Amino acid sequence: MPYSDPKFAVINPSPNVDNCIKSMRVRDYAFIGGITSASWGFGYIFGKPVRMPTASTAAAIGVTFAGLAILQDTRARLMGYKENQREVKIYGIYPEQPKKHVQKDPRFPIATGSASLSTKPDIKFNNYN
Fold first, then answer.
1. Which of 3-17, 31-45, 61-75 has the lowest mean pLDDT?
2. How many of the other CB atoms lie within 10 Å of CB of 46?
3. Helix pair angle (51-79, 26-46), 10° resolution
């Protein structure tokens, strides 16, 4: 979160995998089931000589993809990059919200963050001609 501008309320600026799994929605479980079953069917249809091992391998690849995609989606909701009204009602918002700055010029965006000047010092342009 230090160099970003989330559009929604931040619930957890640095969620771990447990937080993401706890905040999964019914749609997320349906996505995992759908992708896994579709990939199993794909492996079964196109794995003619050895259908069941191919289908099982395809299902494993599908559930891995679906899990990673859902973790990315729930992490984005917890960090405020996607719509998160349900999570705000359940978990509440993070006490330290990033400040919203108005962008004067889109060519020079201002990143709002909670990084201190010791970790992110001001850039000195006096050595550049």
1. 3-17
2. 11
3. 160
CA distance 62 to 50: 18
pLDDT the model gives residue 1: 43
Place of tokens 């509440």: 92
Can you tell me whether residue 54 is helix, strand or coil? helix
| Max Cα-Cα span within the chain | 68
Please write the tens of the pLDDT for every residue from 30-57: 999 999 999 999 999 999 999 999 999 9
Nearest partner of 33 among 62, 4, 73, judged by Cα: 62
Query: Looking at residue 62, what is its pLDDT?
Result: 98
> Please, are residues 69 and 82 in contact by the beta-carbon 8 Å criterion?
no
The CA-based angle 20-41-51, given to 5 degrees, is 120
Where exactly are the structural domains of the chain? 17-91
Phi and psi dihedrals of 13, rounded to 5? -70, -20
The pTM assigned to this predicted structure is 0.73
